[in-house]
Write a structure and sequence with these properties.
CATH superfamily of the largest domain: Response regulator
Helix content: 40-55%
CATH architecture of the largest domain: 3-Layer(aba) Sandwich
Strand content: 15-25%
Strand order of the largest sheet: 6-5-7-8-9-10
Largest sheet: 6 strands, mixed
Distance between the termini: 63 Å
Shape: elongated
Number of domains: 3
Radius of gyration: 26 Å
Structural class: alpha/beta
Order of helices and strands: HHHHEHEHEHEHEHEHEHEEHE
Length: 328
């Protein structure tokens, strides 16, 4: 049988109103400290859990934060961001619920209207009308991670550009001057892949290098034709920036198929430092991204909004480290 507030009141020998005031930390109610502690101890002994539905009705919202994701493949980095954000919000008594929109579906109004969340975190800006409706409903946070609107660059957008720049910086420092870019063949990844490619282009331009030779790499088969295209130029590509480690592993496989030696003939650098990167042949050089700063920023933005404060600006200080191995 479920323990109720009435059971807690009997156990603590107080009224149900006093139990409600204590457990809900109701402001402007002067409850003596011994009484408050007695209620808390009784609730703990009985294993009392407040009703989520009642709490939602009382506050006009739940303790849920909705994270709305597009149809991105949930890879290593996005998965880590979700995990760390979940833990950060839990420290503030908030529960992160992640919802990935089905392919072709743009609206999620029935979800947020049913849940009545404390906040909604939007991953990109493809749902402008939904964004406005959420704000009109008085939900205090609608925060885009990937935002290419003028003057509103999302927290992740600048990070992706910097990743591409770091790849080129490492390759140039190793003596390479003709760079290729291995792009994924999944359009769902464009929000990440295009800014990373832009970072590679910017870094090449800053060093007066020709633009990167871009080739799309499918993960469904060995891509030896891409290797041939890079290597058969008048000025052969000697180093490749891959969109991520999975694409980099496909480039390594294609190089083996084509008899191209890595890194002697072609250096390869990935992104993410997925667990198998160190076991590649040769072990993969990559950019490792820490998600804690991003998660802390999301959590701080939500909490500040709920407290009526201005969300902090994103400092863009998430950890990005070049992990040097044998491939580049």
């Amino acid at each position: 049988m479920k323990v109720t507030s009435a059971d807690v009141a009997r156990e603590a020998n107080v009224s149900r109103a006093t139990v409600s005031y204590v457990l809900n930390d109701t402001p402007h109610q002067k409850i003596p400290e011994p009484t408050r502690q007695r209620v808390l101890d009784a609730a703990r002994r009985l294993g009392y859990t407040p009703s989520a539905a009642a709490r939602t009705l009382r506050r006009g919202r739940s303790d849920v934060v909705l994270l709305i994701l597009p149809t991105w493949p949930i890879g290593h980095v996005v998965g880590e961001m979700i995990e760390v954000t979940t833990n950060e919000l839990a420290r503030h008594g908030l529960t992160l619920v992640t919802h990935q929109l089905p392919t072709g579906k743009r609206s999620f109004s029935s979800l947020w209207r049913t849940v009545s969340p404390a906040a909604v975190v939007l991953a990109d800006t493809t749902h402008t009308e939904e964004h406005a409706a959420i704000r009109d409903a008085g939900i205090p946070v609608s925060f885009a991670l990937l935002d290419d609107s003028p003057g509103r660059e999302g927290a992740l957008t600048s990070a992706q550009v910097q990743i591409g720049r770091m790849q080129v910086e490492h390759l140039v420092a190793a003596g390479h001057s003709v760079i290729g870019y291995a792009s994924p063949d999944d359009a769902r990844l464009d929000s990440f892949a295009l800014p990373r490619l832009e970072g590679v282009r910017i870094a090449c331009e800053e060093r007066v290098l020709e633009p990167p030779e871009v080739r799309t790499i499918a993960l469904s088969s060995v891509q030896a034709t891409a290797i041939a295209a890079w290597r058969n130029r008048r000025d052969p590509v000697t180093a490749v920036c891959a969109y991520n480690d999975e694409v980099a592993l496909a480039v390594l496989a294609a190089a083996r198929e084509a008899g191209v030696q890595v890194p002697d003939d072609l250096a390869v650098i990935g992104v993410d430092d997925i667990p198998v990167a160190k076991f590649a042949q040769p072990p993969l050089t990559t950019i490792k991204i820490g998600q804690r700063a991003m998660a802390e920023h999301i959590a701080a933005s939500v909490v500040c909004a709920l407290e009526g404060k201005q969300p902090p600006p994103y400092a863009g200080t998430e950890s990005k480290v070049t992990v040097v191995r044998s491939s580049a």
